[in-house]
Amino acid sequence: MARIFAVGLAPAARGGNRTGRVFTGDETSNNLMRALYETGYANQPYSISRDDGLILRDIYLTASVKCVPPENRPARKEILNCSNYLVEEIRVLGRSRVFIALGRIAWDSLKHAVGIALGASIPSYSFHHGAEYMVETRLRGGVWLIASYHPSPRNMRTGRLSHNMLVKIFKRARELADLYSQG
């Protein structure tokens, strides 16, 4: 089971929604998979279809919203409707101790879901790329929340997020997960 749990916004219309696998079949997925491959979480630097041979190691990928939102902007009601699924995913993946949010909406959803799933009161931690916070939970002890900009083509092209910045997030996640393995 995965020690790292990463959450994005929603399946992309021409990506995960079309292929049936989150972060698959579009430029965003390739930006993410390239970083996951370089940091040892994926066996290949791309994700193009459900049968492309991709194997993820020690990381679980999901989305805050489970269907394609209109204009890629989910309404608050949509986010809340899907939050029960995210809560259950967190509960089921019992080894996960490091949680990464890819984007602000994922950040807000993740904080809410971790609080419910693991029994924690999570302060209104601010979102900015590279932010990391340790949270004490009743059900899993200490867990880490890490914020990252979303690996969208727009963020990558404008330089808001670079490949190296994304790689750094996943390397740091492994360092934090390893702390629990040693303790």
What does this structure look like?
This protein is of the alpha/beta class. It has a single domain, classed as 3-Layer(aba) Sandwich (Uracil-DNA Glycosylase, subunit E), CATH 3.40.470.10. Helices cover 40% and strands 16% of the residues. The protein has six helices and five strands; from the N terminus they run βααβαβαββαα. A five-stranded mixed beta sheet has the order 2-1-3-5-4, sandwiched between helices. Strand 4 and strand 5 form a beta hairpin. It is globular. The two termini are 18 Å apart.
Summary of the model, kept short:
This protein is of the alpha/beta class and 183 residues long.
Helix content: 40-55%
The best one-word shape is globular
Task: Average the pLDDT over all residues and give the rounded result.
Answer: 89
Quickly count the helices: 6
Percent of residues in β-strands? 15-25%
CATH topology: Uracil-DNA Glycosylase, subunit E
Show unreliable segments.
none
Distinctive features:
6 helices, five-stranded mixed β-sheet, 5 strands, alpha/beta, Uracil-DNA Glycosylase, subunit E, 183 residues
List the helices and strands and how they pair.
Blueprint (H helix, E strand, L loop, with lengths): L3 E5 L7 H4 L7 H12 L20 E5 L12 H17 L5 E5 L1 H15 L13 E6 L3 E8 L4 H6 L4 H20 L1
Parallel strand pairs: 1-2, 1-3, 3-5
Antiparallel strand pairs: 4-5
Helix pairs in contact: 2-6, 3-4
